[in-house]
Amino acid sequence: MKFSRGLIAASLTIGLGAFGVTPAWAAIDPISADTSFNAVGLIVKYQDGVGALAANGQPTAENAAGIDLSPGRDIGEGWRTVSFDNDLTAGKATVVAQKLAADPRVEAVELDRRILPASLGVKVSAAAMAALKPATVVRSVKATDGWSKTNPAAAAVKLTWTAPANLNGAKVTGYRIEANDGSGWHFLTTSLKTTVIANTNLKAGVKYGFRVAAITKLAAAQKIGAFSTSVFLTPTSIPQAPVFNGPNTAFGSTSPSWASQNQAQSGGLPILGYTATATATGQPSVVCNAPANATTCAFTGLTPNVTYSVSLSVRNARGAAVSLPGVTPLDALFKQQWYLTSPFGINATNAWSKTMGSKSVVVAVIDSGITAHPDLDNQVIPGYDFVSDVASSNDGDGWDANNADPGDFIAGEASSWHGTHVAGLVGAQSNSIGVTGVAPNVKIQPIRALGSDGGKSSDLIAALRWAAGIHVAGVPDNATPAQVVNMSMGTDSSTPCRLPGQQVGATEEALAELKTLGVTVISAAGNFNMPATASYPGNCYPTINVGATAYSGERASYSNYSILDSTGQMVGVDISAPGGDSKFPGDAPASTGGKIISTLNTGKTVPGLPDYALEEGTSMAAPIVAGVVALLHTVKPKITFEQVWEVLSTTATKFPAGSVCETQNICGSGIVNAGAAVPAAAALP
Ligand SMILES: [Ca+2]
Ligand SMILES: [Ca+2]
Ligand SMILES: [Ca+2]
Description:
Layout: H1 30-33, E1 39-46, H2 61-64, E2 70-76, E3 79-88, H3 90-101, E4 106-117, E5 139-145, E6 157-162, E7 171-180, E8 185-191, E9 195-198, E10 208-218, E11 221-224, E12 231-233, E13 273-279, E14 286-290, E15 309-316, E16 319-322, H4 338-341, H5 348-352, E17 362-367, E18 384-385, H6 390-393, H7 418-427, E19 443-448, E20 450-451, E21 454-456, H8 457-467, E22 484-487, E23 489-490, H9 506-516, E24 520-524, E25 544-549, E26 563-564, E27 570-571, E28 575-578, E29 596-601, E30 610-615, H10 618-635, H11 641-651, H12 660-664, H13 674-682
Parallel strand pairs: 17-19, 17-22, 18-19, 22-24, 24-25, 25-28
Antiparallel strand pairs: 1-3, 1-4, 2-3, 4-21, 4-23, 5-6, 6-9, 7-8, 7-10, 10-11, 10-12, 13-14, 13-15, 15-16, 20-21, 26-27, 29-30
């Protein structure tokens, strides 16, 4: 029997690692007051010499406590899982755990919790497919260049068409528009009317085919009709921002050089020329012009012994584009990745002028697994699958070496491909396609611990140990241990990391081992607009627990937050990073709706085709920080957990004046600033 998922509203006062706190639920009837189901069992540490099961006839610690438990697996350092017959509410599980903890044969007990991915991915109900005949073909499709002065950098197409002649008794609910750049048909956009201007996911200078189909609906059934014949167009725009050659050449050079632009980069139009401008405080600007075919120019008249900043402008008939500071990647969706460069983004381009990461740095992504994707395939190294619950695993078995994400669909709910989105934020390849990760030159190690029904603490603990190269019983050791681990997950109900009264906890002990090994663990603070101290595993020490901000730099409306602990400290969220907020998109590019774009998959159940999609959540904020930490490990390979925290917290961007993050101090030290953190780490002794 499963209870429906719900949020415990009980007000708990549990600080990080607090001792002797009485849980609020001890005073209430756990069955009637607690409607969550977030414990699948317990994780028990026995005293030395005590086995998990007693010999014949001997009462075990479990049955002495009146619990019918079955022995589970060894997850390291004497901790062993024991499972309940059914999931229990946090309140009931805690009562059971405390009974067991009182047995002298038991050293410590922790709840084996149900953990969920910490993104707000909308699960789509599968529509009942009644007998509906699709509409006939859409007619008279025409394509023209949809370029507009108000959005000059966007390649756009304007499409018009005539509705199908026969709807087969159904109503048109919209039109599906697809584009083909030579690699196959891909979804472009939908439209309610018979005309649309599409200006996202298109590249200037690329010849596209476009086709349109009517979507019709009858009762609950919905069908996509026949596609129109293809029409072709090569959209144009202003050029992409030009890119200087080599690392950090945007600064201090008297003869800057740059990469020539191809047809797509030049906006699909001939380049008319370049202008480089050198500026310095208190000095007149110096300009050099270069013709369309040049890739360098020389400044004359610079003042000696002055450091100039150099920017480069390139123009075509549509207009001009100026280089961004530092390194600017050429990935097609880079302009949608506002969180990398916006005023309250992470200042990634200035970090990249120092490093985009090293292939010797490994970031373990403990999540739902991974799918094949052209922006990830070259980035990923082997991981493992620690989803022990066969029903939840969707791959037919428990722990196994294949970390592929088979889809976390359950009846009526689509697969989330959560691990694929998170992995792309850390390290999607910087190439000409799709997105770029924060640390595109590091390696990603996907480790599976979340299945269709979430994950379990015990699997997470095993995954943490394995990620760091620690031996886990029954599993081949990790040949390429990680320096950084990301956990984008949390509980949807209040659960302290360590059970009140316990001197040690299974999760904290594993995290402490990782810290000793120099591994930095990043966690998501959770998305329930509640104290982050209540969301496991982000409330465990030591991790860097990340809250989410909106485009504006304000706390994302869903993000968990810090609260005052008994010693007068604000605890819960350590630091923030953009996680997006679709309720408050601010000045984020309209095509993003204020959310965070990354790699995904089109499959509704099992994997389909590689894709890109927008998500929001502390699940997105955490891997952005994990990517920054991977850059710190690149410039300072022996950096410690404390040094990482020192660098991130002292270089963070201040929250906007007047925001609740600033006035109430509930979002941690600031917003992670990669461009400031990387040089600070490089300068460490
Ligand atoms: Ca499996
Ligand atoms: Ca598997
Ligand atoms: Ca890319």
